[in-house]
Amino acid sequence: MRRSLAMTVATLTATALTLTACGRGGDAESASGGQTGAAVSSGKATGTITVWAMGAEGEKLPTLAKEFESANPGVKVKVTAIPWDAAHNKFTAAIAANKTPDVAMVGSTWMGEFAGLDALDPTPPAIDRSAFFEGAQKTTEVNGTSYGIPWYVETRVLFYRSDLAKKAGFDSAPTDQAGLKEMAKAMQTKAGAKWGIGLQAGGTGSWQTLMPFAWSDGADLTKDDGKAYNFDSPQIVDAAKYYQSFFTDGISDKAAPATPTTEPDFASGKVPMFISGPWMMSAVEKVGGAGFKDKYNVAPIPAGSAGSSSFVGGSNLAVFKNTQNRDASWKFVQWLADPDVQATWYGLSTDLPSVKSAWDAPDLKGDEKLAVFGKQLETAKAPPSFPTWEQVVTSFDTELEKVTKQGADPSTSMATVQQNAESIGTGQ
After folding, report:
1. Matching fold, domains 5-154+312-377 and 157-310+384-424
2. Which end of the chain is less crowded, N or C, counting CB atoms within 10 A of the terminal residue's CB?
3. 157-310+384-424 maps to which CATH number?
4. Where is the sequence biased in composition, kind Polar residues (predicted)?
5. Rounded Cα gap, residues 275 and 300, in angstroms
6. DSSP structural state of residue 2
């Protein structure tokens, strides 16, 4: 079993934080051209820190924070749980009023916006950025400067009914994009599925299902040395054409309901394949009932010309610039990045660790399905950290819906997305 969290904290505060200064002054330029935050003092954390966290994480974090308090008797961690649907507005209002918390869970696609408002404190040098999955670490970086850490991660893989795949003539998952389409069609013609694979037919967040195919073909959402959007690249256009073909060929349902029925459709065999994240394992097993976990499997995104890649999501932890206790705030953040603490957090929340070495914990290492997510995270990618990303990507989702439901030309649609992106700008 893992060593105690108290021992972990003692080790962190005595050795890992071999730092020399308090306060935020004296930022140094890093090799990448971005800033490195000022160092944090050694010793145990003291004082009070306020923490905002969303959803289930906000409800469960106080349990873990008590372990930090036990190892640092002079500190008090006050966690406020915030509903996801109210979080963004609450943060922007707090930034405008200069009334932010000390530490907060920040959605990975919000980092560019908040950093652009000069609200976040650069990461101190003691935090080892190489300890995290590369794609996740990049979600903390804006113009070469890291603001915080990736706290937990998720990525998307292929879920498929292995029992029905055998009926369709496949003993294993498809390894390339052509094979995925072949298997999906066979699920209909040989295994009795109504639809071969469930793909989101546009709408909010649909870019997260399309882009893994584009990234696997070498796509880049930016150009001009990462300074501009790049939605109309040949790789993204080709991915949109490939994605569209599932709908025009009747393999995926262009009239799928806005509220997904993924779990019951997967359990019944109506839709025996879909692409999603790790939370769906428990969801489909609950609906499928006893023994269902042996009827399905997961596999990496089928490879394109550049291999297999996927979307990396999750949430980061950041310290706000106007914190009244920067020292303890960063010590708490770094403690949450310790491999043992990350593994313990997985046990409490089922959130996947962002620290690569945490995947050696028995609960994670012994699960073959989870191992697929871990492998996919090694090559998973995130969207650019431009402050305008959330605004621009709305056009992507809108145009993709035209591609899937109305048969719009993918080249024209992606050109429209690019024009909108150039009109809005990157916000930098």
Report:
1. yes
2. N
3. 3.40.190.10
4. 409-428
5. 10
6. P
Arch. (CATH architecture) of 5-154+312-377 = 3-Layer(aba) Sandwich (3.40)
Taking the C-alpha atoms of residue 185 and residue 124, their distance in angstroms, rounded to an integer, is 52
The domain segmentation of the chain, as residue ranges, is 5-154+312-377, 157-310+384-424
pLDDT in tens for each of the 428 residues of the chain? Answer: 333 333 333 333 333 333 333 333 333 333 344 666 788 888 999 999 999 999 999 999 999 999 999 999 999 999 999 999 999 999 999 999 999 999 999 988 899 999 999 999 999 998 999 999 999 999 999 989 999 999 999 999 999 999 999 999 999 999 999 999 999 999 999 999 999 999 999 999 999 999 999 999 999 999 999 999 999 999 999 999 999 999 999 999 999 887 789 999 999 999 999 999 999 999 999 999 999 999 999 999 999 999 999 999 999 999 999 999 999 999 999 999 999 999 999 999 989 999 999 999 998 988 999 999 999 999 999 999 899 998 999 999 999 999 999 999 999 999 999 999 999 999 87
Measured between alpha carbons, how far is 129 from 118 in angstroms, rounded to an integer?
Answer: 21
Give long-range contacts, CB 8 A cutoff, 24+ apart: 13-22. 13/42, 13/43, 13/44, 13/45, 13/71, 13/72, 13/331, 14/42, 16/126, 16/334, 17/41, 17/42, 17/43, 17/126, 17/331, 17/334, 18/42, 18/126, 19/124, 19/125, 19/126, 22/326, 22/327
**The two three-digit tokens of residue 399, written as one number:** 């145009």
Encoded tokens for 22: 């308090």
Computed from CA positions of residues 268, 270, 275, 276, in that sequence, does the dihedral angle turn out positive or negative? negative
* CB proximity list for 7: less than 8 A, separation 6 or greater: none
